[in-house]
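User: Before I run my own analysis I want an independent prediction to cross-check against. Here's the chain; please return only the structure tokens and, at the end, one sentence I can use as a sanity check.
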Amino acid sequence: MTFIPIICKILIFGVKFLHQKSVREYGAPDKIFCVEGGGSGRWSTEGGAMGVIAYRDLLKIREGVKIFFIHNDGVVTSPWNRPFLAASKDTNCSWFVGEGVVLRVGNNLWSCRLHSKSTLVLHTLSGVYMFKDAAGKPDCMAVGVRIPSQVRKVQHQLLANILNENTLLEDERPTGITKAISQGALSAATRMNQFVEEKSMTTNKAFIRKNSIRALKGVSRRLNRVAERTGSTMTELPAEYNKLQEAANMLHFSRTAKTVQYI
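Assistant: Structure tokens:
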């Protein structure tokens, strides 16, 4: 029994020695960044009092993610490898909706702390998420993140839900031929509705047998859904997203023209 206090003193001395050694080699950390769910911890010197910040993984896509850096001069760069994507929640903010989530791509490629009232995100028609936060890269106007199509639908939906709750997420508005199709579908649906309303009270039984009112209403609903999916009924994109839309156009052109610079 007398050996127990001696063993405790030896353990305490050992912990103090290792701590002093790490401080001499790496400096005293202000905060500790811990990622649960398979992530590796790292030191973070963000300032503030000594403390521990624990992060809980909300989503992790192991590999296959593409990230694009859209530079101010129009050049688009992307790493050759396809890194992971992780969304983690600060456990100190567990009770706060829209705060405390960090989105990371790769170990040191890009990270962004999401804020529901200030983080602008544009979801393009091609499925790329455009972020205005370029992670301290002054020569970049935006960052694009694309999730591979082979990822399970539930993970796609989970990422969309996380961004909906923690950012100002907007969908890209269609243009060109897509917009024309949308407007045509909406116009046809409007005429169909008018036709149904005018003929629904008709006494011509032959007409009713030949042209089911229920079928006409079904066609009208389908046309309306086409119009909604292609954007005719959407409001204009807010002005603060203009830079993101410009970056999305640059990315679309670079991918189509195959001018993306892989580094």
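Sanity check: Residues 106 and 216 are 52 Å apart (CA to CA).
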